[in-house]
Amino acid sequence: MPPRQSDPKSDSPPEDTHVLELLRSAAVAVTLFDPIGARALLQIPDAELGRRFKRALVRVAGLATVLNIEQRSIREESAQRRNELGANRGESTPARLIANAKLIHFSHFCAVIGFTPQRVKKEVTAQRIFNVDIDDEPYIPAFFLVEQIRRKDIAKVVRTLGDSTGWDKWGFFTTPNSSLDDLTPLQALFYGDRKKVLRVAAKFAKQ
Is 200 left (phi over 0), alpha (psi -120 to 50) or beta? Predict the structure, then answer.
């Protein structure tokens, strides 16, 4: 009897198996949506394709934050996946934000936005962007990468918030506000209500 070949999938850690499933799903989606474009992707060097794919993922996660979309609410999950999520309910909010790519590590942010670490630090110092600290590591909101919001507009709001802590600024941007018709400031900026958001930010900074 010939030796039984091992199933590489069975030898892979659960995390690797899940990643492979996600990549297969993405490949199927691209091929069905745009087969000509899918063939063009094959011409891009592996490393460059990986960088572009990661950049796109982070930008989409940022847009999900702006629109207040909870990723788990818009996808069907297996019973096993639901059980896994249920087991992680005690996970801290910062950990969930990182897992959902709503907060990204400083080094990853630099790579996606295409700035040097020195430039990003200057942006933080100038209060054009902000970071939060998790386990003594800096993380930056992915919504700063959203192309549908003018970078100048969001920078003005960050400056208006002044010396508020990073977590206070995160709460401001992502919490619905009655003065904005129950939109979050991010959503209001998305819809072009910059002046109204600035007024709300000034009031928040004085509290």
Answer: alpha
